[in-house]
Amino acid sequence: MVSRAAKAGSKAGAGVKGARRPEVRLPSLESYGGGELEPDGDYDGLLFGELDFVGQDGGGARFMDCALTGCAVDETRLHHARVLDSVLTGLRGVGTDFGSATFRDVEVVDARLGGVQMHGAVLERVVFRGGKIDYLNLREARIRDVVFEGCVLVEPDFGGARLERVEFVDCVLKGADFSGVSLTDVDLRRAAEVGFARGVDRLAGAVISPAQLLDLAGVFAAEVGVRVVGVEV
C-alpha cells in the first residue's frame, strides 16, 4: 500500500514534498450547553452550533475533538488557544484573535473572516477549504503541512513566518506579504491566482509554474532593479 504522505508527495511533484493532510474523525458529539467561553477552558467532544461568541474571552482554552459550526467570532479572544482534531465550519467574524494559538489536525471550512490575528501561531496538518479571509496576520507563525484549498486570501501577511510543506490549491492569493519568510517545499503551482505585495525576494524554497513565472516576471524584474522597456522602431 502507498501511504497518504507518499500520495501527497507524488501529487505535489518530483522533488517537492507534499503536505500531510489532517485525518479528522470526530466522535459522537454532545451539544455545548451554552454560556460564555472561559479563559483556559477545557472543551472536549462538543458541538458548538450557530453560537454567538462576539467579544468573549477564551484565551488559553483547549478544544479537542470539537465541531464549531456557523459561530460568530467577531473580536473573540482566543490567543494561546489549542484547537486539536477539530472541524471549524462557517466561522464568521472580524478581528478574531488567535495569536500564538496552536492548530493541529484541524479543518477550517468556508470561513468568512477579516483581520484575523494568528501571529506567532503554530499550524500543523491544517486544511483551509473554501471561504474568504481578508487581512490574515500570520507573522512569525510556524506553518507545517498546511493546505489552502479553494479559498480566497486577501492581503495575507506571512512576514517572518516559517512555511514547510505548504500547498496552495485552487486558491486565490492577493497582495501577499512574504517579507522575511523561510520556505521549504511550498507549492504554488496549482494556485488559481498569485500576487505579492512584498517579499518576492524570499521565494527560495517555493515552486511555481511556468505560467506563473511569466505572470510574475515584472515583479521579479522590479525586485532586482531591471527596467523592462519596449524598443522603438
From TrEMBL:
Protein name: Pentapeptide repeat-containing protein
Keywords, alphabetical: Repeat
Keyword Transferase: no
Pfam family, one: Pentapeptide
Species for this entry: Streptomyces dioscori
Renumbered residue ranges of the record's region Disordered: 1-20
Family annotation (PANTHER family): THYLAKOID LUMENAL 17.4 KDA PROTEIN, CHLOROPLASTIC (PTHR47485)
Keyword Transferase: no
Biased composition (Low complexity): 1-14
